[in-house]
Amino acid sequence: MCRHSLLAALLPVLVTMTVLSPVATAQQAEYMIGAGDILAVSVWRHADLDRNIVVRTNGLITFPPVGELMAQGMTPTALGRELTLRLRDYTRETNQVTVTIVQFNSQAIFLTGQVAMPGRYSFERLPDILQVLSEAGGPLPMADLSSVAIVRPTAAGPEVISIDLSAYMRGEMAGALPELRPGDTIEFPASYGGGVTGSGNVYVLGEVNRPGAYPLTEGMDLLQVLALAGGTTREAKLSDVVVVMDAGGSQVAANVDLTRITSDGAARPFRLSGGDRIVVPMEGSSIGDVLLSGAGSLLSATTSVLQGYLLYLTVDRTLDDSRLQQQLSSQTQP
User: Fold this and answer.
1) How far is it, in rounded angstroms, from Cα 163 to Cα 228?
2) I need a surface site. Which of 7, 43, 80, 273 has the fewest CB within 10 A?
3) Which long-range contacts (CB under 8 A, 24 or more apart) does 311-314 make?
4) CA distance 158 to 187
C-alpha cells in the first residue's frame, strides 16, 4: 500500500476513535489524582478560599487554612469530601468543597518527530497510539509509520519499544498495540530514518530564523537545509558558514563560503549527511561565540559540536578526509 493510501485509510479510523473515546471514558472509574496534577478547589460561599493547587511530587497539597494533606491516590470527589470535613473546624459551618482537575499532568506523554503538532499531551485516561496521533493532528507525509518507537523511562534506563503501525493498520500485526504509560515518549521518524532509531537529522545553529533539528532527505544540500530553517538572518556571516561532520570516529569541520556559491551558478552544492551540524555565525563574531551562547543547547543531543569547533581551530582547512575533499573539490569545478 502506498503512503498516501495508508494515510487515507488511517484518517477514518482516527476520526472514529476520537468520537467514541468520551463514551468509553464515561464508563470507567473516576480519575485518581497523581503527582503533578493541577487541581481547582472551590468552596461554596467562600470565594476567598478558591484557588488552583499543584500536587507536589510527594503527593501532598497545601490548602489554607487546612494545611497539608495527601491528595495522590484520591479521586476528586473523595478529596472534596475530605476538605469539606476539615474546613468545618475553621469556618464553624457546613461547607461544600468541589475539586476538579485543571491539568492531568500525571498522565502526560510526549510526541516527537513527523507529526503535525509534536509536544506534551495530558489525558484523563491514557489512549492508544492511534488516538494520540489523532490528537497531534496526524502524521506528516514523510512519517515512517512502520518504525514508530515508544521510549519508556525505567529504573534500569530507557526502554525502546518498536511498533509497525502501518502493519497494524493493514491488519497484518498480531495482537494489540502496546499500552501507553505516563512519561512515555512516542517517536515518529521520517521515512529515511532518524530520531531515536536512526540518524536522519541535520542540526542548524546560529543566524537562521528557526534553529533546530531538521530531517534530511537523500541528496539534500546545505542551501536546502538552510531554507528549511527559515533562511539566514540579515546579521549572518555567509562567507564563513561551518559544517561539522563525523569522519571515521573523529570530526572534521568544513568552511563554506555561501556568498561565492550563491553568486557562482556553476558551483556545485555542498551535500550533507545525517548527523551533520551547521553553524551560521554573525558578522563580527566566530562560531565559537555561537556554540558558547545559550543557543548552543539546541545541539545538546548531538555528538559534541564543541569538539568539532576545537578541531576546526587546530587543523588545516585542507583535510585528508575523503568526503570533505570531494565536497571542496566539487565546489571549485566549473
Assistant:
1) 29
2) 273
3) 311/250, 311/251, 311/252, 311/253, 312/242, 312/244, 312/253, 312/255, 312/287, 313/288
4) 13
Q: Which of 277, 261, 262 is nearest to 225 (CA)?
A: 277
Nearest one of 146, 150, 147, 123 to 134, comparing CA atoms: 123
Which residues on adjacent β-strands are paired with residue 42?
Answer: 98
Cα maximum dimension of the chain: 91
Q: Kindly list the distances between the CA atom of residue 150 and the CA atoms of 17, 59, 101, 180, 186, in Å, as whole numbers in the listed order.
A: 20, 27, 27, 8, 5
φ, ψ for residue 74 (rounded to 5)? -95, 155
CA angle 204, 210, 214 (to 5 degrees): 50
**Alpha carbon distance 186, 136 (integer Å):** 11
Write out the H or E segment, with its range, that includes residue 201: strand 201-206
Which residues, in sequence order, are CB contacts of 92 under 8 Å at separation 6+? none
Question: Is the bond into 65 cis (omega within 30 degrees of 0)?
Answer: yes
Per the model's pLDDT, the better-predicted residue between 215 and 286 turns out to be 215
Domains of the chain: 3-27+107-192 (3.10.560.10), 38-103 (3.30.1950.10), 199-332 (3.10.560.10)
Model pTM above 0.85: no
Question: Which pLDDT tens digit goes with each residue over 163-205?
Answer: 998 888 888 888 889 999 998 999 888 765 444 444 467 888 8
Exposed e or buried b per residue across 224-259, where buried means at least 16 C-beta atoms within 10 angstroms of its C-beta: ebbebbeebeeebbbebbbbbbbeeeebbbbebebe
Cell output for 272: 550533507
Dump pLDDT digits (tens) for 7-57: 444 444 444 343 434 444 444 578 899 888 999 999 988 888 899 999 998
Nearest-angstrom CA–CA distance, 46 and 143: 52
Quote the CA–CA distance of 100 and 79 in Å, as a whole number: 10
